[in-house]
């Protein structure tokens, strides 16, 4: 349900909003979507939930990657999906494949990606995600994407450009995620 809400909000972001009332509705939708994002704890249900959200985001990023041939950091949908991915993989920091959190996260990742991630490729995908969360600074992505969401309520037509320009290490993030996406067959 959260993923559907996020996708609806993202779709709404691409519709030109001309009245303040419509802008307020969009702002409220963004607020609802962001307050329903899961937090990372060590409990199994949270690991599974975070894995599902990360899997859904990864699948959405991959589907757009197949269309564009790259991770387009100027695409607001990609930025929102990358922010969702970054938020939900935070619990993987310092985890090993032997921990319960890691194993439950993988189960959620498989479900959330609708089997794009499988038992067969999960080791490689998890290696990429663990590398991403442990070795790439994702803070500018999540912070600047939140700033971009606020900017959307003011001026939708320029928000994705601001978000892309504001992510300081956009190429590094896009490169790391591209490496993960390349593990899937096109």
Short recap of the structure:
The protein is mainly α and 186 residues long. Helix content is 71%, strand content 0%.
> How many strands, what sense, and barrel or not for the largest sheet?
none
Question: What portion of residues belong to β-strands?
Answer: under 5%
State the helical fraction: over 70%
Please give the count of helices: 9
Distance between the termini: 27 Å
Q: What's the helix-strand series?
A: HHHHHHHHH
Average pLDDT level: 75
Number of domains: 1
Low-confidence stretches: 1-23, 35-42
| CA-based gyration radius | 16 Å
> Judging from the principal axes of the Cα atoms, what is the shape?
globular
Structural class computed from helices and strand pairing: mainly alpha
Query: How many strands?
Result: 0
Structure description:
With 186 residues, the chain is an all-alpha fold. The protein has one domain (2-181). It is 71% helix and 0% strand. It contains nine helices and no strands. It has helices at 2-13, 20-35, 44-68, 76-88, 100-112, 122-135, 139-154, 156-166, 170-181. The two termini are 27 Å apart.
Walk me through the topology:
Layout: H1 2-13, H2 20-35, H3 44-68, H4 76-88, H5 100-112, H6 122-135, H7 139-154, H8 156-166, H9 170-181
Helix pairs in contact: 1-2, 2-7, 3-4, 3-5, 4-7, 6-9, 7-8
Give the key terms.
about 190 residues, mainly alpha, globular
